[in-house]
Design a protein that fits this description.
By secondary structure, the protein is of the alpha+beta class. It has a 5-stranded mixed sheet with strand order 1-2-3-5-4. It has 4 helices and 5 strands.
């Protein structure tokens, strides 16, 4: 249950969410086949980024899911600082930080780990963003195959 995985991630990040006045909302999420520990880490990393790269306003984060063909598209949308389009792919590289470490803490590994987790689950991940208006990180996971017997 992706709802359960997201709940676990939110519980793990409770203090960070409260300290930053973040509001996290979401749609009902699907039940998928996957490693719950890795999927919890995926949601945690995306949520931490949404909080870390916040604008002056309190972070507002929305998680949505939509079935498209043979896959689910799950998105994490925020109202943060955004990413310039030319860096939309670079942010998924290991140790790639677009901002000075004294302004935004981080190792540069979070999104690389997200990409690895999504890839391991036969999906893909990308970001759509506009500077000053936030980012939407989306990833796909396959719809579980049903047993024909």
């Amino acid at each position: 249950s992706c709802d359960q995985v997201l709940d676990d991630a939110l519980r793990n990040l409770h203090s960070l969410i409260e300290e930053n006045g973040a509001v996290v909302t979401g749609d009902r999420l699907p039940v998928l086949v996957g490693d719950p520990v890795q999927l919890t880490r995926l949601f945690q990393n995306l949520l931490v980024n949404s909080i870390r790269y916040r604008s002056e306003a309190p972070p507002e984060i929305h998680i949505a899911a939509e079935a498209r063909g043979g896959e689910w598209v799950i998105s994490v949308r925020d109202n943060g600082i955004g990413i310039e389009p030319q860096y939309a792919e670079k942010v998924f590289g290991i140790f790639k930080c677009l901002h000075p470490r004294d302004k935004y803490q981080g190792s540069g590994m979070g999104l690389a780990i997200c990409r690895k987790i999504v890839s391991r689950h036969e999906g893909r991940i990308w970001v759509e963003s506009e500077m000053g208006k936030g980012s939407t990180f989306s990833f796909t996971l396959p719809v579980p195959r049903t047993d024909p017997s």
